[in-house]
Amino acid sequence: MVDIHCHIIPIVDDGSKSFEETINMAKKAESLGYTKIVATPHYIQNDTQITSDIIKDAVQRINQEFEKRDIKVKVYSGNEVFFTNDMYELIEKNIALPIENTRYVLMEFPMYNVKPINMENEVRNLIVSGYIPIIAHPERYEFVTENYKDLIPLIELGALMQINLGSISGTYGKQAKNNVKKLLKKNMVHLIGTDSHNSKRIYDIFESCMNDIKKIIKEEKLNTIIQNSDKVLQDKDVIKFDIKKGLFK
Asked: Looking at the predicted structure, is the pLDDT value of residue 247 above 90?
C-alpha cells in the first residue's frame, strides 16, 4: 500500500519530532502493509517554508537509513501546500513540491473559516497548467460541514478528494466523522491517507478504521480507493466514481 499523506520527515513541521520517531512510524506502517510513504511536510507561506532541497535531501537520507535497518518502506517527496492565490507559481518555481515529480499536488484549505473566495479559480489554474490538485482531508473543513456540495465543482473540474483514515473513528471530531461518511456514500472520495504525525495516533486504530469504512462502502470500492494512491505515485490517472449516482441514491 501507499500512504499518500504523511508527516514522517523529522523536525520540519508538526510531524515526527525525532529520527527515532520516524523509524518507529516506518516500522508501524510496514507492519500494516505499507511499502511506500509520501512525505508531505506543510508548506505555508510566511510560516512553515521548508525548502524543496531540504525535503529531497531528508527523503534520501531517510531511505538510506531504512535500507540499513532492513525497513522495507520507501519514502517519496512532496508537500502539503496551504492554499494561496499563487499555487501555480509555487509549484513551477520548485518552491513547493508536487508528489514525487508527478502532476499531483496535495493542497490544504483553511480549517475554520468560510470557503476561500478564489478556491475554484486556483484549482482551475492548476489543472489548466497540467497539474491535478488533491484536496487534503476535505471532511475537516468548516465550509464542507456547512455545505458538502461546495466540493462538487472542484471534483467536476478534475480535483481529487483525499480523506484521512482516522476521520471515520472520530479522531478529528464528530463533524469530520459525519462528513467523511457522507463523502464516502456520495462517491466523493478518491484517496485515503493516514496524515500520520507520529507512530501511534492513527496507526494504532488502522484496522478498526478500515472495518468502519467497509460498513459504508463495498470492499471492492475501498480497494480501488487504496490502489489509487499507487496510481498517483506512478503519475497515472486514478479511477473516479459517478458523483451524480451517489447524490441521487
From this structure: no
